[in-house]
Write a structure and sequence with these properties.
- The protein is α/β, with parallel strands linked by helices.
- The chain is built from 8 helices and 10 strands.
- The strands form 2 sheets. A 6-stranded mixed sheet has the order 6-7-8-3-9-10, with helices on both faces. Strands 2-1-4-5 form a 4-stranded antiparallel sheet, with helices on one face.
- It is globular.
- Bound molecules: adenosine-5'-triphosphate.
- The site of adenosine-5'-triphosphate has 14 residues, from strand 2 and helix 2.
- Residues 1-20 are annotated as: Disordered.
- Residues 26-259 form the ABC transporter domain.
Length: 280
Amino acid sequence: MAATAARISPSLRAQAPQTTPDDIQIDIRNVGKVYGTKASDDPVVALDGVSLRIRRGEFISLLGPSGCGKSTLLGIIAGFQAASSGQILQDGRPIARPDASRTVVFQDYALFGWMTVQQNIEFGLKAKGMAKAERAEIARALIATVHLTGFEDKYPHQMSGGMKQRAAIARALAPDPDILLMDEPFGALDAQTRVLLQEEIARISSEAGKTVIFVTHGIDEAVFLADRVVVMSPRPGRVREEVLVPLPRPRTAEMRSDPWFVSTVNDLWETLKPEWQKGE
Ligand SMILES: Nc1ncnc2c1ncn2[C@@H]1O[C@H](COP(=O)(O)OP(=O)(O)OP(=O)(O)O)[C@@H](O)[C@H]1O
C-alpha cells in the first residue's frame, strides 16, 4: 500500500492546497503491473498497489531508483500499456488508449529526423487536419516559447541535444494537451543545459497551466520543478512517500540555495542512497 506524506511537516501540510473531488484530474487507483505472465517467463512485478491522486495543473515529480517502475507507470497513464490490476481515471473516465489530451516527451527526443523543427511541431496538427496557416502560427508561437526562433528550418541532426529537447517539448505542447508526461526528458543532456531547461520547463508549464508528470532520477531536479515529489520504492514500485514543495512560482535559480531546498534534497539523498547503491 502507498505510504503517504510521511515527510510533510505540520506547517507545510497546512499550506497544502485543499483538494476537492472536482480538482482531481488523474486518479491512480491501486495500480499493479506484472510483466512476463506467459508460462515460459519469470514474472516481473513492476508496480504493486500504486495509488495517487493528481490535481489539475499540478506538477508531480516521480522520483525513484532505476527499475522501480516510473516509466511503466507513465506508460500506463499515457495509455501505451494496460495495468495488470487497478485502474487510472482521467476526469472520471478510465484511460484505455493514448489520446491527444496526454502527450509524452522522452529522453531521446523522438523527433522525426527527416523533418525540420517546424514540420516536427506541426506534425500532430497536420494529422488532425488543421489548416496550414493555423498550424504554422501555433508552431511559430511554440518555437518562440522554447527559444528556438531562427531554427525553424533546421533538421534534428543540425541541432544540439538541448535544442532537440526544446523542439520535442514544443511538439508535445502543440496539440494543447491537458497533461504533459515527461520521461527523464533531460537525462541525456549535459549538466548546464539540464539546469537551463529545468528553469524553462518550470516557466512553460506554469504559464501553460498544464498538469505535468515528470519522471526523474535527479533529486534536485525533482524538488526544483515539482509541486509534489512522489518518491517510489525499489521494485515492486509503490508510493513510498510524498514531499510537498512550498517554494513559490515562478521557480528561480536562487531557490536552489534556499535552506528548505538544500535540506530536503539532502534528506531525500540520505533516504534513497542505500537503494541507489544497491541498484548499481
Ligand atoms: N516490457 C517489459 N518486459 C519485462 N519487464 C519489463 C518491461 N518493461 C519494464 N520491465 C521491468 O519492469 C521494471 C520496471 O521498469 P521501468 O522501466 O518502469 O522502471 P524505471 O523506474 O522507469 O527504471 P529507469 O529509471 O531505469 O528507467 C524493471 O525491472 C524492468 O526491467
